[in-house]
Amino acid sequence: MEKIFVKPNGPLKGSVRISGAKNAALPIIAASILGTEEIVLEDIPELKDVEVITEVLRRLGLKIEKNKNTLKIDPRGLNTAKTDYELISKMRASFLVMGPLLAKMKEAYNSLPGGCNIGSRPIDLHLKGFKALGAEIEMTHGEIRATCEKLVGAKIYLDFPSVGATENIMTAAVLAEGETIIENCAMEPEIVDLANFLNKMGARVTGAGTSTIRIKGVEKLTGCTHQIIPDRIEAGTFMVAAAITGGDILIENIITSHLKPVIAKLEESGAQIIEEGDNVRVIGSETIKPLEIKTLPHPGFPTDLQAQFMALLTQADGQSSIIETVFENRFMHADELKKMGAKIKVIDREAVLLGKNKLYGSKVSATDLRAGAALILAALVSEGETEISEIYHIDRGYENIEEKFRNLGANITRIDV
């Protein structure tokens, strides 16, 4: 079993390049099923989740060549609409092949998805969208089968702006007959990246990044070359690393418009943010000011950075609060931080933190992907050594995380014990 060990080593300094976004890469790789010619995807992060989704596609018959951070995908070998249970159960995002398979093959067989245990993430909105487009849905023994004679455009209102449902409905609708309108849809930058990718292949998608997306169906999609956007969550994690250690980090390959609420909260905490084109310099302050944070769907404060900010606020000079509105079970990292000495009280969906905690190195567990990042951040300012287990969660979303932190001066190692 691999573990990560961290010892404090003072303020982090230097530069770090942000990888391509996991949450953009996964739906775009899945959507490659729709193509009829070769697709080249650049800046694909080397992550466990990417390995899983590419293997899902290989078992569907697609040919995939990997060269460092580039994938070449030939979708012409697609020969089945039934996914592999073992792979799908590992990762929730693998459910995103449902929409492309339904559009391309007129059928899709999938098991219920897995992933981080951060709360209820029902697939009912995905299925509601497929039904509106004309699909019939059967569910038996944890398996979902969607079939159709043809898909026809429809107006679909999402009860919640679900990212996954928006992506699945988009990829199903691009080959549907007529126009599809998705209302109250997700507005995340990763949705925009998916729309740009689909349009490069010949789709007609407008409105991505707003609450209403319009899709005019086309007969076929071709191929293209596409570069994945930078990972705003990884960028935010290293921005917090500068703030919590009182460091000075130049973060390269970043789109600041994707991180407005994060930048605003870091500045409110006392950090200095200097934007330099595609780079951002973050200079930590000697005193971290307390914050009140409420997670919301984009363009609100991202739930995927809630855990990292909780680590930061253990060091704030005063009482802070975090309200989690997106996932109901996303405070599991609070118990792990409390093992290190953090003073956190969780009631329902609100965490109250008493700052200026002296943290101590402890044996802790990465309860989910972003919790793992938060524990690394807390360990950077703890007394003694911190041992983090269950780090496969971290590997699902961060490329070369120890190397990137070491290059900034962190004392961090990975050991197979």
Structural class: alpha+beta
- Unreliable parts: 115-121
- Give the N-to-C terminal Cα separation: 6 Å
In one word, what is the shape? Answer: elongated
Mean pLDDT equals 94
- The number of strands is 23
| Order of strands across the main sheet | 21-22-1-23
Q: What's the helical proportion of residues? A: 25-40%
Largest sheet: 4 strands, mixed
Strand residues, percent: 25-35%
Radius of gyration: 21 Å
Helix run count: 14
Organism: Peptoniphilus ovalis
Binding site for phosphoenolpyruvate: 22-23
Family: Belongs to the EPSP synthase family. MurA subfamily.
Main location: cytoplasm
How would you characterize the overall build of this protein?
The structure is a single chain. The protein has helices at residues 22-31, 48-59, 85-88, 98-105, 124-132, 163-173, 189-200, 232-245, 260-269, 306-313, 332-339, 369-379, 392-395, 401-407; strands spanning 2-7, 13-17, 39-42, 63-67, 70-74, 107-111, 136-140, 143-147, 155-157, 179-183, 204-206, 212-216, 224-227, 248-252, 272-276, 279-283, 292-294, 319-323, 343-347, 350-354, 363-365, 386-389, 411-416. By secondary structure, the protein is α+β, with helices and mostly antiparallel strands. A four-stranded mixed beta sheet has the order 21-22-1-23, with helices on one face. A four-stranded mixed beta sheet has the order 2-14-16-15. The protein has a four-stranded mixed beta sheet with strand order 4-5-3-13, covered by helices on one side. α1 (22-31) runs parallel beside α2 (48-59) and α8 (232-245) packs parallel to α10 (306-313). The radius of gyration is 21 Å and the shape is elongated. The model is unreliable at 115-121 (pLDDT under 50).
